[in-house]
Amino acid sequence: MTMTESNRMRNGVDVTTLFATLDAVKAQPEAAQFQFRVKNRWVSGTHSMGTISSFYGVGTEQARDKSFVVEADHPEVLVGNDKAPTPAEHLLAALAACLTAGIGNISAARGVELTEVESTIEGDIDLNGILGLSDEVRNGFDNIRVNFKIRGNAPEEKLREIVEQSRARSAVFDVLTNGTNVSVSADATSA
Amino acid sequence: MTMTESNRMRNGVDVTTLFATLDAVKAQPEAAQFQFRVKNRWVSGTHSMGTISSFYGVGTEQARDKSFVVEADHPEVLVGNDKAPTPAEHLLAALAACLTAGIGNISAARGVELTEVESTIEGDIDLNGILGLSDEVRNGFDNIRVNFKIRGNAPEEKLREIVEQSRARSAVFDVLTNGTNVSVSADATSA
Predict the structure, then answer these.
(1) What beta strand segments (E) does chain B contain?
(2) Does A105 lie at the interface with B, CB-CB under 8 angstroms?
(3) Could you give the 3-state DSSP secondary structure of residue B101?
């Protein structure tokens, strides 16, 4: 089969490259070992700046030609200066973005043209936990709800299946629902 | 005790307000019920934009006078256009920022002046999971490592205790290690 340029791209996804990538990883599973990294620098109070650039994957260091900066702070009501979203909001943003990227890719692979994908994410948190005022309250979100609005040239059921498949294969959803191993160490010097 | 301006602020944290906030929540624990939100809009392929503005807390809607935008994409090696960090990198950035904000606040509360806080976060992920090529590989990070460099006017042991207390009271660390409830729903219409 010869693909023309018009059916090679769908939803902004190069479908030929998508399937070629899947075939390449099938042939060489170790290419899928990735390491992502962030460097964070404290600025003042609750304000910090994360820098994201290189990562490891496909058997080699992957140097980006740029760095991304992600800032975080607390709002004034939580004793910050509201320079940037809270870390908890960044966590919700990561979840939305992961599910949405999956919807873009999966739709493209299944031949569905999307016209609109929007989502609203809400997370409920009782700050008596992080404030150390109750040992019965957890530190993090009790519940997170994600609601998608999805429009495309497929029956409702097929669009729902795309959202479900994205959920079933989301890296961020997995970590947020199942947890993972996190180690924290410190190089501390009096200065 | 009368506090002067110079000992009221420490590490950019208004210590008087920090303790007043703790006292206020002690007196009225329901003030600590918060809801954070993100709205996400798919742009193209794996690229999406999250918007963060209002939240609920201290018994009322909290309208910010601005919106923050958080973009995400995949790099080219993962069939994206590298317009922004990956969702997985945003997750690591959220963790670093949460632990760092905690270090800022806890140091201020304990009378420690910080001179430098930096951290490096690494997350290992085998993409055979999200690519659907192995049912034995999880979708998310297998391991995340956070290493802090912390400098301040306290003995090493006290600086280490501050990092440990931040870990013990971090909202993002809790969710990433213990998991939480996440529901995903979809309003799907053929269009």
Answers:
(1) 9-10, 13-14, 33-44, 47-52, 55-57, 60-62, 68-72, 114-126, 143-152, 181-190
(2) yes
(3) helix
Measured between CB atoms, which of B101, B169, B171 is closest to A125?
B171
Which residues of chain B have a CB within 8 Å of the CB of A142? 180-181
Structure tokens at B10: 């420490």
**One digit per residue, pLDDT tens: chain A, 191 residues?**
445 555 689 999 999 999 999 999 999 999 999 999 999 999 999 999 999 999 999 999 999 999 999 999 999 999 999 999 999 999 999 999 999 999 999 999 999 999 999 999 999 999 999 999 999 999 999 999 999 999 999 999 999 999 999 999 999 999 999 999 999 999 999 99
Closest Cα of chain B to A27: distance in Å?
Answer: 10
- Nearest CB neighbour to B89, from listed A36, A189, A191: A36
| Distance in angstroms (rounded) separating the CA atoms of residues A72 and A88 | 9
- CA separation for the pair B94, A50 (Å, rounded): 9
Q: Does B106 touch chain A (CB under 8 A)?
A: no
Put simply, the answer to whether A174 touches B138 (Cβ < 8 Å) is yes
Mean pLDDT of B124-132: 96
Q: Give first-to-last CA distance, chain B, whole Å.
A: 67
Q: First CA to last CA across chain A, in angstroms?
A: 67
Quick: pLDDT tens for A99-112: 999 999 999 999 99
Nearest to A77 among B57, B134, B144 (CB): B57
What chain A residue is nearest to B116 in terms of C-alpha separation?
A: A42
Residue-level pLDDT at A52: 98
From A59's Cα to the closest Cα of chain B, the distance in A is: 12
Which of B40, B12, B90, B52 minimizes the C-alpha distance to A85? B52
Query: Which of B180, B179, B150, B185 shows the shortest CA–CA distance to B165?
Result: B150
Question: Dihedral, CA atoms, B96, B102, B105, B111, nearest 10 degrees?
Answer: -100
Residue among B13, B94, B142 minimizing CB distance to A45? B13
Exposed (0-12), middle (13-18) or buried (19+): which is B6, by Cβ within 10 Å?
exposed
Between chains, do A151 and B189 touch, taking CB under 8 Å as contact?
Answer: yes
**Closest by Cα among B26, B17, B7, B75 to B47:** B75
